[in-house]
Predict the structure of SET domain-containing protein.
Amino acid sequence: MGRTSRKRHRKKKFHMQKLKSEENDAMNFLKYWLFQNCFSISNFIPTNFPITGRGLKTIRDIKEHEILIKLPIKMLITTFTVSECDVRILFLKDQSYNAQHILSVFLIYEEHLGTSSKWYPYINSLPQYFSTPEFCTSQEKKLLPNFIREHMYYVHNIVKNFSLLMQSLQTLKKKDKNYCSHCNIPLDKIITFKKYKWAYYVVNTRSVYINEREVQDSMIKIESPNNLALAPFLDLFNHDINASVSVSLITDEYKNKFYQITTLKSFEKNSQVFINYGPHNSLKLYIDYGFFIPNNPLDEVVFNIFDIQSCVTLSECALKFIVSNKFNKNMTFTRNGLNYNAIIALFIASTTLEKDFWNIKIYGTSFSSEDHTKIHNLAIQILHLKKNEYLCYLNDMNNIKKCSESFLNALSLIREYIQILDESLKNI
């Protein structure tokens, strides 16, 4: 599950702030709407926190192993929910769709219904802007480092998903069914790429995972895994790497089902309550959720075989050995130095020993002082190469004076990587 922008790199104000008037009204409306079905939300107040932005404050002490929230399954928005509403006509019978796409289309349609939507209190509470790299301006995107752009487009191919939607609209047009049954506006006027991008990232940053078996079958052809759901109010919990929770689907004595989160750590009264989205490094957090965590222990700076070749001439034999044994996969600098794959790859790249001795060194005897020196010297060259690369990125990116919050996050992430390289240098 996810989060909109974190104000981690703005000037910090070390006090909690009330939500803006309109936002506060939306949150109160959401709580009122949910309260009759979910009493546990009464323990929390939506609040703007320094560093993390909007989150949930507890009005009392919360103990270890206490239930944070117990949301009825009927309050989750799943693909089955979509199949029961008018927007289902947009999903062609001979085409399969992933759950994220289906939920995104649902949000666009329900949002345009306004107060006529059953889900209006929830949709009205959703953020309109996200700070993932996709929300950088066109000029900013051109300056993003390759490792951010490539990862972003690989993970989130929004254009491809939107094209499926356009195919559906064209089919409906031919049948003269391209009109909203509620307001008679053409569906292609309601469903735009801008709206689709917004809805896609609502789902991406705020959905929860559920067991596929808990999602009822529908007439829509859905790609596996069909395991996403939107969870009103629950999605206000922010992420903290030190938080620990357990998630479960439970059934009470009346056969009612609930999505339940239990905390494994305590929280003091008036503090922010966190959950844990999973063991994610800062690149994933930024691309998927629009924020990152300074000093994240999972962060590393990756380098590849081309970086090695920029610093040393690799023999064909050495290159083949590294690649065939997959030592080139995930070679990184950590705050503590080199990871295992990096050490082995740099040993192979720098050694003068014959190939027959490589496996003996790697899996048998330890490296000699001479081996360590060669690995160290080559590592230093690559480290400076990567640092200069990141400094060049920063130099180009700093030319944009008035930039989006998404772009500010990218700048801060690169500075964080430079800091990792500086710390790694001390420990190689």
